[in-house]
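Here is the promised in-class demo. Please do not try to memorize the tokens; focus on the logic of going from shape to residues.
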């Protein structure tokens, strides 16, 4: 039978093998083997530390947020016990070191729980607890006798304190509060920088300074993108660029070649993006714009030329980032051919591994045309119309203690009964069932819809009604400041399709930038299919088939952003649809894989009758048995959670008849509650002319 130390050693091995349940059981055996708890304090300290780590790792790895919260709670209890035993250690310096370690892991618990939680109302409280423990660790670190160890421990804590404030600043919707939090993050990163300069090992000191400059630059960069003050954004981008240039100079002093190359490339990538964002967001003189675009291209192309020096994994990651920057530069330079090819290539590689059949190539073209990335959308505001009841739930007001995420709903019961069929009809690819029963669809489309028609009478009348009262709903406005769409991943909506069609899921991009991958969904514009009759003017559609002279059906696509780019888009869309029409004419040559390719785009076309909606969509294709689909008993519907929109919405416009339903709602109460919960979301009233409901 193993003694206490033997059991502890066995648990360590089990932990390394990620057998956490077995490790926990072994540690409990070790704990029970210590009959006199006034002895073997060191061993008891180790056991509590090990139990905390096991629960922590389980919490990190689980996708169930409720389960994660419970596991983090257990980890915290064991880390608190660890801290208690650490204080009993006889050796003073060991006592302090163990307390520092315990405080670090307590801080990490609360930090990681904050990142993982869906309950945004808990965020500030959890960050506060994390900061409290890191600050306690900082005070203890200053008591260490070994000077270099003292500095290293302070460096670690300053990094995590800066990281806490940085992440909290990103998550908050209150811009004034975000400003304060970013400033605090910068203060801690600067403390980190000063400590890094005190390290005796020269290379170690340089590396720490490089890391600090990187985080300081990243903080200023994100701060610049988030602030609503354009002058301030310009100064912050300039500051970020200066910090990345300083990082670049420090990198040149590193002795290890591979590390030097990697970090040089990172600094250059960030410099390139600093200049791109300055052009996109800041009003400059023509001369300044030319300079910034030139600088952006210089740094990004320099990295592109160095990619061969990286391993394949690193190369792929950096190439994605570079590509998005170079693509934006092409758009800013109005190099439409190059811009479009980069968009299309990204789609092909993400969905089809770059090897496409004829229909897949045409599908990639359609997706590249209809995908609206941030640079194309600019500051165009988009509206989402919903009922007061749902609006209150989304913002966590009106009796709702917590906010609910916006839902991506099933297409099956949308207002358009022909949803997803228009394109199939166009290509004469209807799935006719001759039997008296049919199987359910293998792919289910889920989407949430937006319109470029903000505060629109017709939209108010149709959507978001309460008690059947027209214009009683709410218009949620997004993207007024051009900051709604984040870094997107074009593979996210279609991963189940890619996997089903035999693509290697390992090659698909993993979730990044956000704990919620659906926040990275690309935005698609809906195109409308018209069947020509004597009442549809030809000018209503810019594309007609089979020809402009003999129009039978047309495609309507509203311009977004640059008119020259829109004309280019129309040309590419026409070519792709003509290619699909020709391909699917010979039904004998059409395989199941060819039909499958249409699943990627069929929900991006609607009937011409809905053209006034000017719709944009966030789209997800999933099988009905996907674990990501949830059921709502209240609405008797299935959906996929999208995101907490309190960090995304800019304004709520209350419909003209908001106060005139049977629920006796009051606009001033809505304003008051929103001011308490979401102070940066503007609230206004629509004054569109519509009669009040009949009494």
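The designed amino acids, position by position:
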């Amino acid at each position: 039978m193993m003694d206490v130390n033997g059991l502890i050693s066995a648990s360590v091995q089990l932990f390394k093998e990620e057998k956490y349940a077995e490790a926990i059981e072994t540690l409990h055996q070790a704990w029970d083997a210590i009959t006199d708890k006034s002895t073997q304090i060191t061993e008891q300290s180790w056991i509590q530390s090990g139990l905390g780590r096991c629960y922590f790792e389980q919490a990190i790895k689980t996708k169930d947020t409720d389960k994660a919260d419970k596991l983090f709670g257990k980890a915290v209890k064991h880390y608190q016990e660890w801290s208690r035993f650490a204080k009993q250690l006889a050796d003073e310096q060991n006592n302090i070191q163990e307390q520092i370690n315990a405080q670090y892991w307590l801080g990490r618990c609360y930090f990681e729980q904050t990142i993982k939680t869906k309950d945004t109302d808990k965020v500030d409280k959890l960050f506060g607890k994390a900061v409290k423990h890191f600050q306690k660790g900082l005070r203890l670190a200053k008591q260490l006798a070994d000077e270099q160890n003292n500095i290293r421990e302070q460096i670690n804590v300053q990094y995590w304190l800066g990281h806490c404030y940085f992440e909290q600043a990103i998550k908050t919707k209150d811009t004034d509060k975000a400003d304060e939090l970013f400033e605090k993050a910068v203060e801690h990163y600067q403390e980190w920088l000063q400590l890094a300069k005190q390290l005796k090992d020269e290379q170690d000191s340089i590396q720490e300074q490089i890391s600090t400059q990187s985080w300081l630059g990243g903080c200023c960069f994100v701060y610049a993108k988030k602030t609503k003050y354009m002058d301030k954004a310009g100064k912050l981008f300039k500051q970020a660029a200066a910090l990345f240039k300083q990082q670049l100079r420090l990198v040149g002093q590193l002795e290890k070649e591979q590390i030097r190359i990697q970090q040089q490339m990172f600094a250059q990538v960030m410099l390139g993006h600093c200049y791109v964002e300055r052009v996109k967001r800041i009003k400059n003189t023509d001369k300044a714009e030319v300079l910034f675009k030139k600088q952006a291209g210089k740094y990004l192309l320099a990295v592109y030329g160095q990619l061969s020096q990286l391993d394949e994994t690193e190369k792929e990651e950096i190439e994605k980032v570079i590509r998005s920057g170079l693509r934006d530069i092409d758009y800013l330079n109005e190099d439409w051919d190059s811009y479009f090819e980069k968009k299309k290539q990204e789609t092909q590689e993400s969905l089809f591994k770059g090897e496409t059949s004829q229909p897949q190539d045409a599908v990639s073209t359609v997706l590249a045309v209809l995908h609206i990335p941030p640079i194309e959308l600019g500051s165009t505001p988009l509206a989402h119309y919903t009922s007061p009841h749902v609006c209150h739930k989304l913002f966590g007001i009106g009796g709702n203690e917590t906010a609910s995420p916006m839902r991506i709903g099933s297409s099956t019961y949308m207002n358009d009964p022909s949803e997803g069929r228009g394109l199939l009809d166009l290509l004469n690819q209807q799935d006719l069932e001759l039997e008296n029963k049919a199987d359910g669809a293998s792919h289910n489309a889920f989407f949430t819809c937006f319109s470029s028609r903000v505060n629109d009478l017709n939209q108010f009348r149709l959507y978001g009604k309460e008690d059947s009262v027209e214009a009683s709903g709410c218009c949620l406005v997004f993207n007024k400041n051009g900051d709604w769409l984040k870094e997107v991943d074009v593979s996210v909506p279609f991963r189940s399709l890619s996997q089903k069609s035999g693509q290697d899921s390992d090659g698909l991009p993993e979730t990044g930038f956000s704990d919620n991958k659906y926040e990275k969904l690309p935005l698609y514009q809906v195109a409308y299919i018209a069947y020509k009759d004597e009442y549809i003017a030809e000018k209503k559609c810019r594309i007609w088939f089979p020809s402009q002279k003999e129009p039978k059906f047309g495609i309507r696509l509203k311009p977004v952003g640059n008119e020259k780019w829109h004309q280019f888009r129309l040309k590419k869309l026409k070519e792709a649809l003509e290619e699909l029409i020709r391909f699917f004419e010979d039904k004998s040559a059409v395989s199941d894989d060819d039909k499958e390719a249409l699943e990627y785009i069929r929900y991006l076309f609607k009937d011409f009758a809905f053209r006034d909606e000017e719709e944009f969509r966030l789209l997800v294709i999933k099988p009905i048995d996907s674990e990501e689909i949830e059921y709502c008993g209240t609405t008797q519907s299935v959906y996929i959670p999208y995101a907490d929109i309190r960090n995304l919405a800019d304004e709520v416009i209350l419909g003209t008849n908001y106060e005139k339903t049977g629920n006796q709602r009051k606009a001033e109460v809505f304003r008051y509650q929103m001011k308490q919960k979401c102070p940066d979301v503007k609230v206004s009233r629509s004054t569109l002319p519509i009669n009040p409901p009949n009494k």
